[in-house]
Specification:
Elements (H helix, E strand, L loop, with lengths): L1 H24 L8 H8 L7 H13 L2 H22 L2 E9 L1 E4 L1 H6 L2 E4 L2 H4 L3 E8 L11 E6 L8 E10 L5 E6 L2 E21 L6 E3 L9 E7 H4 L2 E9 L7 E11 L4 E2 L10 E6 L1 E10 L4 E2 L8 E9 L2 E6 L1 H5 L4 E2 L3 E2 L7 E6 L6 E3 L4 E10 L1 E14 L6 E4 L3 E9 H4 L7 E6 L6 E6 L1 E4 L2 H6 L1 E4 L3 E7 L3
Parallel strand pairs: 2-5, 8-11, 15-19, 16-20, 24-27
Antiparallel strand pairs: 1-4, 3-8, 4-7, 5-6, 6-8, 8-10, 9-15, 11-12, 12-13, 12-14, 15-18, 17-23, 18-22, 21-23, 24-26, 25-31, 26-30, 27-29, 28-31
Helix pairs in contact: 1-3
Amino acid sequence: MANLCAILTQRRSQTFWKVCLRRRETLPRSTGSSGSLRRDRMNIPKIDKAKLLRGIKSFFTKNMALKVIAFVFAMLLWGYVLTDQKPLREKDVPNVATSFDGEAELIAQGYCIRGDRSEILQDVTVKVRTQITNYAYVTPSTIIASISLRNISDAREYDLPIQATVTSSLGVVQSITPATVKVEIDQLVTKTIPISTTFTGELPEGYWADMDALSTTSRLDITGAKTDISTITHGECVVNLSQKTGTIYSTFDVTLYDKNNNVVSTDIVIGTLPTSTIRLPIYPIKSVPIDVENSLVGSDNLAANHEIIKSVATPATVRLVGDQATLDKIDMIELEPIDINGLDVTMTVSGTLIVPEGVRLLDSATVAILLEVREMVISQTFEQLEIQVHGLERNGKVSLSIPAADLTVEGRYSLVSILSRSDVQLFVDVTGLTPGVYKLPISVLVRDEKATIELTTTLSVAEVTVTIDQSK
């Protein structure tokens, strides 16, 4: 059928050119130029472009149905050739991934692969012979390339062949590039190393980590090639506390080190990567004041005429940790009862805190309590005490704007309660003053100078106008 189409096409082409030549011969020859003479001598017909285009158009537009049938028939014949004859083609497939075959058996024998697996298992190019109908389906995903580790019984370097197969019978492998790979086999060993835990960062303000309750992985077994594992001496787990507001309970990667504290890559470890399980309780913190006053027993039964003027704990506040809901209910912390019956002097005593249920005290449970005790302070008022004049010269004469004033005396009960009018003096001092009118302060003397300094005195008037007359 294909030959028939070719013959028809050839005959049609010959007919087309014969028509063109026949039409060319009917045209008159031009003798007006040397170019035309040369064409005549060479018997080259002059081509009319318009007629040529009409001829081409006629070729492609006439008998269109026959041409379409011939084309379809040719396509059917070509499809028959492809499906029935199944011609073969070769295809180079790059970027085919490789893998190890028999690694589990190798490990069971006490051996393992040493080195960077990504460098050993590099992609290869596989040449596949396949039918043309399967050509497009042969891709890297349809090819399995592997390196067999079977029949290895010694720790040394091997030059192993790479094997490949095509899935679903899509073709046959012709070659692999590269064809071999170097693999180092070492003894498989397990070593136990100590693991330390360090912390970085700071907890947010208002939170506390209970380091006493810290739970970590203290020792770890690592498995791998003997040459590599033997260099590892210890491991470290680093936990970042930044932004942590709740208990940490998780696994963290472990960094491996050699004896010189150089980091050793975990790629050499076979099996599970080294990790440490960390549990660290983290709680919110609340500072609360110590309630001293309500812890005192007998504050109304001190020594006679004594009172407590100050009761202070050192420290004044303590820190509690616990569940946030529980902390929110606590405004202060109490002390075990402190007996102060009959107390008559200032003293410092120890107090023991009562820790509320459900929380933990971060500070010491014992605090120092300062109890400042003194005699009661009372006052006594003396009315219309005569204002005396001190320092007046002999035969001098003086007059005061007011002759008397009221005085209130405040101080210790034992001192104030025994005072009488005769113990108190009010006076103005005119020593060295010349005749004239003066405003002088009123001075107070209670018993003696020492008592006067200890007591607090208040006058109804602070000063008086004093008139000194010329002596006669």
